[in-house]
Write the structure tokens for this entry.
Amino acid sequence: MTDPAPPPPEPIDAEIVPDPPPPATPAPDYDEHGVPSLDYVRDKIEGRYATSIGAAELAEGTAAGRDVEQQEADRAAAAKAKLDEIRRSLG
């Protein structure tokens, strides 16, 4: 024989309390007049500089990668030519 089903849970009577509004303070990197701090400006400039340096390094790396790809293509072409030559000599 099976056990009878448990009774449904009783509803909970509760009140939803809204979150308090955040305090109206200026952003941490700006003063009360909306002027950014020197540290904020310096960090932004240094970030952009680092991004440009990284992009330049990637561009150099891509050119070096193309050189390697070209060498591989040259080797593959030479290997194919040698294989064709061997096949012709065999008959």
Summary: The CA atoms of residues 53 and 89 lie 54 Å apart. The chain has a mean pLDDT of 85. The chain has one helix and no strands.
